[in-house]
Amino acid sequence: MALMITDECINCDVCEPECPNGAISQGDEIYQIDPNKCTECVGHFDEPQCQQVCPVDCIPLNPDVVETKEQLMEKFVRLTGKTA
């Protein structure tokens, strides 16, 4: 699954620079995560970095974008050009 940012976001700006895929950007009102770029940090880190730094815990899994760890790894390879 990709991650998503809920409306509990306080726009603190700490998640965006932590994303190794550049999946997080400022939306109209709150930050948003591009599910096409989000790998939940698979291939980069053991845990999603945005979740680790979020002070209000507003970055859950996106139930509309269901992906396995294997699919997330395939996306990592496609985005970075690195091999698994």
Outline the structure in words.
Helix content is 20%, strand content 7%. The chain has two helices and two strands. A two-stranded antiparallel sheet has the order 1-2. The chain is globular and about 35 Å long. The two termini are 18 Å apart. The model has no long low-confidence stretch (mean pLDDT 96). Residues 1-29, 31-64 form the 4Fe-4S ferredoxin-type domain. One of its GO terms (cellular component) is cytoplasm. GO terms for molecular function: 4 iron, 4 sulfur cluster binding; metal ion binding. This is 4Fe-4S binding domain-containing protein.
What distinguishing features does this structure have?
PSI_iron-sulfur_center; iron; 84 residues; two-stranded antiparallel ribbon; electron transport; single chain; 4Fe-4S; 2 helices; 4Fe4S_Fe-S-bd; alpha+beta
Spatial strand arrangement across the major sheet: 1-2
The largest β sheet comes out as: 2 strands, antiparallel
Query: What's the architecture in CATH terms?
Result: 2-Layer Sandwich
Name of the level-1 CATH class: Alpha Beta
Total number of helical segments?
2
Average pLDDT metric = 96
CATH topology: Alpha-Beta Plaits
Helix content: 10-25%
**Global geometry:** globular
Structural class: alpha+beta
How large is the share of residues in beta strands? 5-15%
Number of domains: 1
Terminal Cα separation, in Å?
18 Å
Low-pLDDT windows of residues: none
- Give Rg in angstroms: 12 Å
Sequence of secondary-structure elements: EEHH
